[in-house]
């Protein structure tokens, strides 16, 4: 099938689009969007790849599932469009960022500016039924996004993978740690953060330090 996705990503992933699991996945997604309210809107499903082309990706932040409330999901992990209330996990991300870098938190939750600097904001599952968390898990998306991580690991060097929480940490087995950097911590959700597993990880300053040591531009978080 024809997938509308950034050109270099499309070239890297073209074999995936022809595999039986992906054909089944797309049939499922089309059926879901036809018969149920689903997020994000169809044109935003592959936004992470549009905003962070393959050749420009230098940091990966992995989420699990899109937000399932009205107007929240727009194809970037942890991000919501401007005008939508900042979710609790992102509030904690901003709090850590402020403590780490001494920068003011934005008054919105849109992370497109991060993505445009080469931060791939990738959810393991790219779609969800409204108000039903996890409803599109185990349908094939995870196979696809695992392959995305493998392709980045195989074809690039020096990427910084930020793996937050138990689910994301399991993806470390897909990454060649001799070529890339893996930073892990607890998840920024209130449950994890309030138990002391998130705050103080300093992932934002650590990421920029690594980037600059590699000769790359720091991220303007």
From TrEMBL:
* GO MF term list: uracil DNA N-glycosylase activity
Q: Which residues form the Uracil-DNA glycosylase-like domain?
A: 50-211
Q: Which reaction does it catalyse?
A: Hydrolyzes single-stranded DNA or mismatched double-stranded DNA and polynucleotides, releasing free uracil
Q: Extract the InterPro entries matched here.
A: UDG_fam1, Ura-DNA_Glyclase_AS, Uracil-DNA_glycosylase-like, Uracil-DNA_glycosylase-like_sf
Give the subcellular location. Answer: Cytoplasm
Which residues participate directly in catalysis? 65 (proton acceptor)
What broad class describes the main subcellular location of this protein?
Answer: cytoplasm
PANTHER family, per this entry?
URACIL-DNA GLYCOSYLASE (PTHR11264)
* Function of the protein: Excises uracil residues from the DNA which can arise as a result of misincorporation of dUMP residues by DNA polymerase or due to deamination of cytosine.
**What is the official name of this protein in its record?**
Uracil-DNA glycosylase
State the gene name recorded for this protein. Answer: ung
């Amino acid at each position: 099938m024809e997938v509308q996705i950034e050109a270099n990503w499309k070239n890297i992933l073209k074999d995936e689009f022809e595999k039986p699991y992906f054909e089944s996945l797309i049939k499922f997604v089309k059926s879901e969007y036809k018969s149920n309210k689903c997020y994000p809107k169809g044109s935003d499903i592959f936004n992470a790849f549009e905003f962070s082309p393959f050749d420009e990706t230098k940091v990966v932040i992995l989420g699990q599932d899109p937000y399932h409330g009205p107007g929240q999901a727009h194809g970037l992990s942890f991000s919501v469009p401007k005008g939508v209330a900042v979710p609790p996990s992102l509030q904690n991300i901003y709090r850590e960022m402020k403590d780490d870098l001494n920068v003011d938190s934005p008054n919105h939750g849109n992370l497109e500016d991060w993505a445009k600097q080469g931060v791939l904001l990738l959810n393991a599952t790219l779609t969800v039924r409204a108000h039903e968390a996890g409803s599109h898990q185990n349908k094939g998306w995870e196979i696809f996004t695992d392959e995305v991580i493998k392709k980045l690991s195989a074809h690039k060097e020096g990427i910084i993978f930020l793996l937050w929480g138990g689910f994301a940490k399991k993806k470390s087995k897909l990454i060649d740690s001799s070529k890339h950097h893996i930073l892990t911590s607890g998840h920024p959700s209130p449950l994890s953060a309030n138990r002391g597993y998130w705050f103080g990880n300093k992932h934002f300053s650590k990421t920029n330090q690594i980037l600059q040591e590699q000769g790359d531009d720091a991220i303007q978080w």
